[in-house]
Amino acid sequence: MNSISNSFDLFIFLKDKNSIDEKYKYWWPTNNDFEVFLGAILTQNTKWTNVEKSLDNLKKLDCLELEKLANIDIDILVSAIAPSGFKNQKAVRIKKICQNIIEEFGDFETFKENVCRDWLLSQKGIAEETADAILCYSCHKEEMVVDSYTNRLLKTFGYEFESYEELKAWLEYGINENFDKIETLYDYDISLNMIYCRFHGKIVEFMKNQKKS
Questions:
Q1: Cα–Cα distance, 158 to 145 (Å, whole number)
Q2: For the segment 33-75, what is each residue's pLDDT rounded down to a tens digit?
Q3: Residues above pLDDT 90, as percent of the chain
Q4: Among 186, 179, 210, 206, which Cα is nearest to 13's?
Q5: Closest CA to 200 of 3, 5, 1, 24
Q6: Exposed, middle or buried, 78 (CB in 10 Å: 0-12/13-18/19+)?
Q7: How would you write the chain as a 3-class SS string?
């Protein structure tokens, strides 16, 4: 494994692996922002394949909308998201956060534009990783996502961090400091948000591939 001195070095190391699907420019396997929002909650403590089954169930019920989930019968929601596990807990939390979004922001587009990290962290069942996933992938804000894959990968390079926030700050700093260099690596305009999305995606896909091999 190569040595790295900052997160920019890690980004370059991963970019050379060409591990993410170009079909989704933000890496997350859907371009629908509301599905991303739901997926970020449903994927807690489960595999993404299970989340896809839950989202498919909600699509069949024509319930993949903020207002519909805010008013859905809780038993129907529990049944629909059962493949994702913790179905009762997740159903209550999803319905409640949808109601809170309507109460606080009015609609999902306004939520995407105006939500802040502290508001998300104040919601039941939303911790740092889920909040940052929603902000980064669904709201397209400049927040880097940290997960267990990130921790494990950096340990292989000899890095250990005391907290989620410390690791997140380390990742963001190296990217921000070298943003002009990263821009030159692409033949199209790329935003800092898209870099964070793709950086996290590269980490996840690289670690999944390491597991297979």
A1: 20
A2: 999 999 999 999 999 999 999 999 999 999 999 999 999 999 9
A3: 86
A4: 206
A5: 24
A6: middle
A7: CCCCCCHHHHHHHHHCCCCCCCCCCCCCCCCCHHHHHHHHHHCCCCCHHHHHHHHHHHHHCCCCCHHHHHHCCHHHHHHHCHHHCCHHHHHHHHHHHHHHHHHHHCCHHHHHHHCCHHHHHCCCCCCHHHHHHHHHHHCCCCCCCCCHHHHHHHHHCCCCCCCHHHHHHHHHHHHHHCHHHHHCCCCCCCCHHHHHHHHHHHHHHHHHHHHHC
Residues 57, 87: contact at Cβ < 8 Å? no
Q: How many Cα atoms occupy the beta-carbon half-sphere of 84 within 13 Å?
A: 27
Task: Quick: pLDDT tens for 110-163.
Answer: 999 999 999 999 999 999 999 999 999 999 999 999 999 999 999 999 999 999
- CA-to-CA distance for 129 and 167, rounded, in angstroms? 12
**φ, ψ for residue 172, nearest 5 deg:** -70, -40
**Two structure tokens written together for 152:** 């494990």
The Cα 70–Cα 91 span in angstroms is 11
Q: How far apart are CA 74 and CA 197, in angstroms?
A: 32
Whether pLDDT at 1 is above 70: no
